[in-house]
Design brief:
heterodimer, A: about 270 residues, alpha+beta, two-stranded parallel ribbon, about 30% helix, B: about 425 residues, Protein Transport Mog1p, Chain A, 14-stranded antiparallel sheet, 9-stranded antiparallel sheet, 5 helices, about 15% helix
Chain lengths: ~270, ~425
């Protein structure tokens, strides 16, 4: 059948799919780049709501997941694609649970490197840092924006200060929980509008609950960074298993990733 | 200057190198935007280059190198060779007789060479781009190939550097060659192959009765290679040994390497005794996990994962499948009347906290030996030989396609 080695390399591949081009980096991530085309004239800015087709392996499962996302509406399910309408920052609707506050194997804010970072955070922002301040702090702490990490635990990110979107998301979730915020890691796709046109990438970010709803918090893109307003988030899965078997969950993420995005257009 | 070629204007070089980054970098193709002299330089080769016997000071190893080689120098854990191949700079090769990781060593040699080139010219490394990355087999040894094109900045002057590295490793023997000069890509590849093919050394006991090398291709975005062997130890148990390496350019200037080793001992009937798996990424150990029975006969899955100690007790009544059991199960499935077989497996890289189930379902109505394999959300189609050993497979999940193909084997995977 299959050797552990082949499975391990697949796992690595899964982690590398979520490698968003942080702005400090100069080139696009090869594996995470997703083909995208638009029906709109070039340079057309993205509207408040857009529609598009996500080409995925299992459209029914994707449609079922997306139907629970606030700000997304499934318009059609075809054999190889799901057509959706989406607002700029759709979020999951799951109820807040204690597990989103607890330290876990992956979101390990009780480990020494994260505890030390927490002290630095409190020194800088006081005893009750806001979610926006957490984003700014994590962005600043991860000084080496590199795709060379596959998927690090929060304590490793805290110690190393390097990584791509997954490392930003995991560390932000850890510091959010350490400061009493419900937080979790989300995987999906982002669509970006820039001068060169539309582009799409596999991405990971954090959702932090503000007391009434989940909010997207992206530590790769703190407020004020260029492009912040022209980015669309498309959540396609959640990091459910934060235990030592987290890698197995990454297999499943592969299936939820679109092979391409087509027919992007604004909704009047 | 030995290691660098023609100086060029800063702006021209930076432009061409950054432009190269927009293509799939590891293809090794010439970029249309490169100046003529670079394109011409990249196409330079030496056709007539025959291997010549190198006089070794020890009898345990004999080897051959092309060109005029100097006397080998003893280094820690091996030998260093240098040979004039009339290609702008000499060919440098190494034989290491110690356990090394293929991906890590390839990356290390490339980085050391690039740093040495910059230091030799009194400059600093500017822009770096991965020109070529590949994997394969040479003389039964899995190998990696890596080429970097880069700039070296010395004051106002900018020069282009080009470093080629090839490394092959099997067991405790590693072979490496490097060459720092524009072009001579085929010359270098042939020199390396000849070096490995013409080196004789004593194989550590026990010699495997079966060996294979499989190549992995990730959508053209990277490559990997797996070496797998079976040998019989003094007690009559079977030792399955595998190394897994991948080399993945994650963007135009960043390389990620992954190395893994798995050693499994089984009884001759395939019953698993114990297994060990160590994973290394970018030269750092990510996990070191083993599965063995404790005194109460329960399984203990434990070790370190991302620096954390874990120890999980798993049901001792379960008999997780060894690699050998996987082979015999597939072989028996195709020979029998059942359409599928399900086995418990321990896959520490996926989840060390539980046994997972893998299912093999026959799909051989049109293609002999064809089957579908599932492991949780992972599913792929593969072709199996008469021993139940996978010859090739295509794993397609979302935007990722992984092609696996056995490219070399020796012996048969059963006693």
């Amino acid at each position: 059948m299959t050797s552990p080695g082949k499975q391990r390399l697949s796992c690595l591949c899964a982690a590398l799919l979520f490698t968003f081009p942080c702005f400090a980096q100069t080139s696009d991530p090869y594996l995470a780049t997703i083909s995208i085309d638009s029906t709109m004239p070039a340079q057309t800015p993205l509207g408040v709501s857009v529609k598009f087709s996500l080409h995925v392996d299992d459209p029914d499962t994707t449609a079922a997941f997306l139907s629970d996302i606030a700000g997304m509406q499934v318009l059609d399910v075809a054999v190889d694609a799901v057509q959706v309408a989406a607002t700029a920052r759709p979020t999951t609707t799951a109820a807040i649970e204690d597990k989103f506050l607890r330290s876990s194997f992956v979101i390990d804010f009780d480990e020494e490197p994260v505890l030390a970072l927490q002290e630095e955070l409190l020194m800088e922002y006081g005893t009750s840092p806001t979610a926006e301040e957490l984003v700014e702090f994590v962005y600043g702490h991860i000084g080496n924006k590199t795709y060379a990490r596959s998927f690090d635990l929060a304590s490793i990110v805290a110690a190393n200060g390097e990584g791509d979107c997954t490392e930003h998301a995991v560390l932000l979730a850890a510091l959010a929980r350490a400061n009493g915020h419900h937080a979790r890691v989300i995987f999906g796709t982002v669509i970006m509008a820039a001068d060169k046109g539309l582009s799409a990438y596999g991405h990971a970010w954090t959702e932090i609950h503000d007391g009434s709803e989940w909010e997207i918090m992206d530590a790769t893109l703190p407020e004020g960074e260029p492009g912040t307003k022209d980015i669309r988030y498309l959540p396609t899965s959640i990091l459910e298993d934060e235990g030592a078997g987290y890698s197995f969950g990454l297999f499943g993420l592969l299936n939820s990733m679109p092979t391409k995005i087509t027919g992007v257009s604004n909704i009047d | 200057m030995r290691d660098l070629v023609q100086p060029m204007l800063l702006i021209t070089l930076l432009t061409l190198l950054l432009a190269a980054g927009t293509a799939t970098a590891q293809s090794g193709d010439l970029d249309e935007s490169w100046p003529d002299w670079v394109r011409e330089g990249m196409e330079k080769e030496i056709r007539k280059l025959k291997p010549r016997r190198v006089k070794m000071p020890v009898a345990s190893i004999s080897t051959m190198l092309p060109g005029k080689s100097e006397a080998p120098q003893a280094i820690e854990d091996g030998w260093y060779f240098i040979s004039d191949i009339e290609a702008g700079s000499p060919l440098e090769c190494y034989i290491y007789n110690t356990s090394l990781d293929l991906g890590s060593l390839t990356n290390l040699l490339a980085n050391n060479n690039i740093a040495a080139v910059a230091q030799g010219s009194g400059g600093t490394v500017g822009v770096r781009n991965i020109h070529y990355a590949d994997a394969g087999v040479v003389a039964g040894h899995p190998y990696l190939a890596l080429e970097w094109i880069y700039t070296v900045i010395t004051g106002e002057q900018v020069q282009i550097g080009f470093t080629k590295v090839r490394v092959a490793i099997k067991g405790d023997m590693a072979f490496a060659c490097t060459h720092n000069y524009l072009g001579y890509r085929d010359t270098f590849a042939r020199a390396f192959s000849g070096f490995v093919e013409n080196t004789d050394y004593k194989v550590a006991a026990p010699a495997p009765y079966y060996e294979e090398v499989a190549r992995l291709d990730y959508n053209g975005f990277g490559a990997g290679v797996i070496y797998f062997s079976l040998s019989e130890d003094e007690e009559g148990d079977i030792r399955a040994f595998s190394t897994e390496t991948s080399i993945m350019p994650v963007d135009s200037s960043t390389l990620m390497t992954s190395d893994g080793i798995t050693i499994t001992y089984t009884k001759p009937d395939g019953e698993l005794i114990n297994t060990l798996n160590v994973s290394v990424e970018n030269g750092e150990i990510v996990s070191n996990l083993s599965l063995r029975r404790n005194e109460a006969d329960a399984w203990i899955s434990g070790g370190t994962l991302q620096g954390k100690e874990i120890a999980v007790e798993l049901d001792g009544a379960i008999s997780p499948a060894s690699e050998l059991r996987l082979l015999t199960t597939a072989r028996d499935l195709f020979a029998g009347t059942e359409t599928s077989a399900t086995l418990d497996v321990w896959v520490p890289s996926a989840d060390p906290t539980q046994f997972l189930q893998t299912t093999l379902t026959r799909a051989d109505s049109e293609i002999k030996g064809r089957a579908n394999v599932t492991l949780g959300p992972m599913s792929y189609d593969g072709t199996f030989d008469e021993y139940g050993n996978m010859e090739d497979a295509l794993m397609s999940m979302g935007p990722v396609q992984i092609n696996i193909e056995r490219v070399w084997s020796k012996g048969v995977p059963e006693l």
